[in-house]
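Review form for a predicted model. The reviewer records the input and the model, then writes brief findings.
Reviewer: anonymous (R2)
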Amino acid sequence: MSEPFVFDPRCDLCKEPFGAAVCGTAVTFHCRPLASEHFSHCALVAVCEFSGTRQELELSLEGPAGERICFSGVFSAPPQPELVWYHFRFWREDGTGCVLDKTGYRSDGETDPWQLTVYRESRTPGWFGAGVTYQIFPDRFCRLSVPDPDGLVGRRWVHQDWDDTPEWRPDPDGEIRNRDFFGGSLAGITSKLDDLKALGVTTLYLCPIFESASNHRYNTADYTKIDPMLGTEDDFRALCAQAKERAMRVILDGVFNHTGSQSVYFNADGWYPTLGAAQSQDSPWYSWYRFLHWPDSYDSWWGIHTLPAVEESAPSYVDFIIDGENSIIRRWLRAGASGWRLDVADELPDWFLVKIRAAMEETAPDSVLIGEVWEDGSNKISYSQRRRYLLGSETHGLMNYPFRTALLAYLRGGDADDFREAMETLRENYPPAAFYSAMNFLGTHDTPRILTLLGTDHTPESKADRADYRLLPWERSRAAEKLRLASLVLFTFPGSPMVYYGDEAGMEGFEDPLNRGTYPWGHEDRDLLAWFSRLGALRNGYPVLQTGALRWLCTAGPLLAFAREDGQVRLVTAVNASDSPCSLELPWAADSAQDLLSGSSFAPDAGRLVLELPPWGCLLLS
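Model under review:
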């Protein structure tokens, strides 16, 4: 980074330490205006959002620094977690002056302040961010036999052909119920653990596995039971145990903001023999729901009546999910899970998240809690409230949708510097442990398949056309080139690289449920699979890729280069996201450089390494 003009919070000439600050620590600020501006005074103006306090700290004039003068001061971070919004005020002896904020000097009475995240230091399990995560949609990964849906909650039906397209058409009532199943199972996942180990996977993230009326199982019917189509609790314990033998862990999807209307708790259709909240106000679960007019009008997730929203503050619900000795959080950790990913974390109150983490730490101290948040989680506002996910008592990390958004924009013709800026914003705003514990990804069950996105120039208008769409050979080849670049960045960037099942095998598909097809066993894209396996091996084989510091080397147009560094160990990722060759010059102190992807060697000259990157070319240099 070049020397800042007056103040740049990312430069140690201006602020130390970098980024977020631990509660109660000292943060040093330096402002360096031009002497010709004749400022005689400078003050740091800090507003603490949660406490509602405002502080103005006058900085000391340290004297001249070339054509500049330097004002310096030490700000004590609040003793409690906070979001501090700050700017600077300059004035002269005659009383004239201005303020300095993110936009520069201004005198209009408005400010666009910088953010200082103040967090409580707490233990974060290192295994998650260091490892490789693999997301599995259990119904679609591997089946060992065709299940019988008779006697199960929901009017289910099963595809006999594993290669069918998921049902995307509305039912006769005009609704998409997701009642079609393929029969993937926990035992099927267990049978493929060696394949996943060969891919470099260290963590399995499973979409919901509890009994449910739908194939996605985000409308839970019974939190205490594994869905019978997936198997039994013994099957789950066996999966976790056999994964552990291979140094792999399992994290579960926790859907605690809503249940299914066809659940034992709500029981709208009376399938369960016990009385649900929709059947009787004397139901033990009646207090879990917010009825506007019992029994037919109630609060639901995003107005979807099959997903009645839960009243999280109901004491019996808190005890059932979190506090009880055999609560859902504790029970499944004891059964072998190593963590939870919280669905729609924005919809859960902060105090609820605090209690979940506390229960997890009591039950399984090394377990990890990841939240589904689609934006910068350090300053997210949800339902008019600023959230506190990363301040030390809630989640350890978040799903990193900003990473995916910025990386896709770059690969689609954007400037690499925009990707750098987006990631530096997160690095600056997040506590270091949260930045390194982010779940990074290119796609999930909620997004179109990455290969489809990278290969298409337009999206067909009708869902029927999108369901039938397959990339042409030249489109698929182009998409695969881009995917190699994207996955290299994914596997070499701080945070856990997460692969959505089948992306490594070349699966295609637009939006839900077209992105939830069955894994193509025996028909994988072997070249892509080999590429992902190589990246997994490199990620696991080089600790610097797991925990090393991040240093940007080049972000200009299509050229992206960054290093991961730890002491004398340094690996450099270099990418050319264009259809033209590009030259890249890097400082290089060593006598030689080797590409860990191809085995090619390069000779530096006078401390400089000049590289010619082919169209859509990439290197991982050692």
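Findings: The chain has a mean pLDDT of 97.
Further findings: The CA atoms of residues 455 and 475 lie 5 Å apart.
Recommendation: see findings above.
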